[in-house]
Amino acid sequence: MMWVRKMDKKAYTEKEKLVLVSLVKEYGACIENKKTDGTSIQEKQNAWENIASYYNAQPDINIHRTSKQLKKLWDNLKQR
Fold it and tell me: Using an 8 Å Cβ cutoff, are 26 and 74 in contact?
């Protein structure tokens, strides 16, 4: 049986975290909205896609991250 190795996950640097925090501040009202209707959910998804695009366009960012990964990081940072 052949074992498939999962893709290595790289830890976020402090610089990457700071970039995310600064981008989230711009979209904070949208992504922290408590509404769960279809329109609000779509707006949140669009906001996270925009955040991911801006994040990955930064010159100091070497590892491409998805909107899902960035949202998870944000959720983890909020917990701390």
Answer: no
**Helix, strand, coil percentages for the chain (3-state, nearest 5):** 65, 0, 35
Q: How many helices (H) and strands (E) does the chain have?
A: 3, 0
Residue type (1 letter), 45 = Q
**Burial of residue 19, with CB atoms counted within 10 A of its CB: 0-12 exposed, 13-18 middle, 19 or more buried:** buried
19-35 pLDDT tens trace:
999 999 999 999 999 99
User: If you compute the radius of gyration of the chain from its CA atoms, what whole number of angstroms results?
Assistant: 14
CA distance 50 to 70: 11
Q: What per-residue confidence (pLDDT) applies to 10? A: 85
Q: Is the pLDDT of residue 3 over 90?
A: no
The residue among 16, 44, 41, 42 whose CA lies nearest residue 28 is 44
